[in-house]
């Protein structure tokens, strides 16, 4: 069994120590055999046998001692707990060791509502991030999770990001340990965290971060380098905020009435941590002690720049002159610092003076920092930024550049450029490249990033973006960019995984579905915003509707507006209009054109001609709005197509044709007009528009064109050509119709070909969750199996089709069971005949179905052919029924 704590992985054996061990072993053997005259026989035998092994046993002990001696200096830097004793067990980890805020009153742990959920997630994922405001109880929750859930694990609290990184890279194996990362923002400067994946297998990782810091680290500005990937590495965090009624109820037995009132106002953690006392003292400073208040503001402003420590004490007077009308003297600063650092109720102070490698620095209490943020008193003072710039190292310069960009002031880009140009850190180079993008200087950005791309994942990701921009934009494809995205995704960069999926999809290569899905799911796991919705939309596009639904719902619930619209589209595609309306809610969704278009469609589908007219007016108003914000190059065209669809729903063919005259290359507009004309018995006119729609990419038009060629023109060769085109484009209707056409030739040499296409249709129907075509394909495959002399496959397919509700399959299955001649077979046969009779009573006969798919059902009557169409296009459904009179 593994022992917990640290071990050295690379200790070599010493020749001298081996010699000593051999000598000891020889002496032991000689003493036992020659000197102990009355030694028992068994002991002599054991001595003779075991003495050769003694050197290795002794050597093991000496190696362990050498390991401890060799590793001591490294461990002295890496973990204070490992200096002269083992790391503490989680059950013994103290409040002080965990850095829980000192409390004004000793109170036993009050279990939070999320405790059980957090513990379950920690045990499952082996990593957990707890997010909340200052003094909300984040650290105490994490401590209690470790104490109760992992009591026999050691706890290691690395002092900083560099110590954590060196512990892994130096070959110090960490086993059965809880890695404690309090204030996670202090560990975000190391760039990629893929190396952490290797140490989680035997360990657990608990981290905390304030809400404001989480927001800062996950900001999505394009100018910000995206190497801060430590937060998404943890997956979905546990959020804690104000204390619930139930939580406070559990605490009341330990509090006085006045303490309970303050806990309700501030939260129990803030009340016990001295939050109300800090707020009162900060108010005093704000109103009566201007020097003290400006020192607090300066310290908080400095910390927001991303510097590893607070402002150095020697620079205080210089920096304070930027906040005050005059420069304070050293005695005045000393007096102010004495007041600021004085403990309130012996627990907390507004500011602390601490010593680090740069000397004495100031640190503002994090609760005070959040109060200043709530009061809108935090700001980035360019001159203070300049002071920090003068003393920052390369890594801090990268953070200063990011802080400048996030500030968004007029001088932000200039300051960011200064910091990033002065830094050699990969994050800085990536940030500088993003500035070059905005200026159109793509060649310079490429030259900056290319030397770093093979060794730095962040640089590889930004180089890929640069190459895509050079190729024509985010919708363009670059083979090298795809390779770089994939390379960066291997290091768990969330944005790189997302872009790897998009780039793979744009490659146009066949059989990329598995890779696209894998990268989207990786981006989801790493917490990339929009990944769940993008994967859901992709699964819809490839016909995997059932798998897409929960992803779209998840993304919509998380506030993803695009996913919300995709979900509404999903419901509309399946005729679930009420659900679509509920998802859309406010029709405008902030004026997004696609949302307005979807809302208009839902209105038209639900109502009468007056509703259709109202929907048309909504879409016309959108198209006439000069301030409408179109989401992409073709988003306006999609809304124009919606207008064509609405006019056809209102039987206004002239208006639809007028729009199509001005916009002849709209694929679905041509498809809908062609469908409308065929429905109204204008087969030649409809054919022209359907052919154009097929050429423009609407592959399902092939099935309709094949039906027209077969049933109107009586041209089987042309019909087969169209159906082949559609089937090879993965159109389900074309596959099913092609199999029917081949089978109906009644040529035994073609049975295998018909079987192949029904198998393809069955596989596609399962992907698209089309139960009707799935059942029909299974029933047809059973008939083919019988014709090919394969009774086992025939019975299996009949059974599958019967279970799918196919009446013919039920009767055929009953016939096959009767032919077995067994009692069991006859009983089962009678059961399936009863099922068939029951199904027939509930399914009225309305002609013979000769082809069925999710886009068309063709029904043959004596003198008429009916085609019922359900179009599930990316732009919404159209359900039509039209007939063609034929000569009997």
Characterize the structure shown.
The protein has 888 residues and is of the alpha/beta class. Helix content is 59%, strand content 8%. The chain is built from 43 helices and 13 strands. Helix 12 crosses helix 13 (290-303). The N and C termini lie far apart (83 Å).
Layout of helices and strands:
Elements: E1 5-8, H1 15-35, H2 41-50, H3 54-78, H4 115-125, E2 127-132, H5 138-149, E3 154-156, H6 161-169, E4 172-175, E5 177-181, E6 204-210, H7 211-217, H8 230-233, E7 238-239, H9 245-251, H10 257-266, H11 268-272, H12 275-288, H13 290-303, H14 316-320, H15 330-340, E8 351-356, E9 359-364, H16 366-374, H17 382-391, H18 394-407, H19 412-422, H20 426-438, H21 442-449, H22 457-471, H23 479-489, H24 494-506, H25 513-525, H26 531-541, H27 545-557, H28 561-573, H29 577-584, H30 593-606, H31 609-624, H32 635-649, H33 653-662, H34 667-679, H35 683-695, H36 701-711, H37 716-728, H38 732-743, H39 751-768, H40 771-787, H41 791-803, H42 807-819, H43 823-842, E10 848-852, E11 856-860, E12 864-873, E13 876-885
Parallel strand pairs: 2-6, 2-7, 3-5, 5-6
Antiparallel strand pairs: 1-4, 8-9, 10-11, 11-12, 12-13
Helix pairs in contact: 1-2, 1-3, 3-6, 12-13, 13-15, 18-19, 18-20, 19-20, 20-21, 20-22, 21-22, 22-23, 23-24, 24-25, 25-26, 26-27, 26-28, 27-28, 28-29, 28-30, 29-30, 30-31, 30-32, 31-32, 32-33, 32-34, 33-34, 34-35, 35-36, 36-37, 37-38, 38-39, 39-40, 40-41, 41-42, 42-43
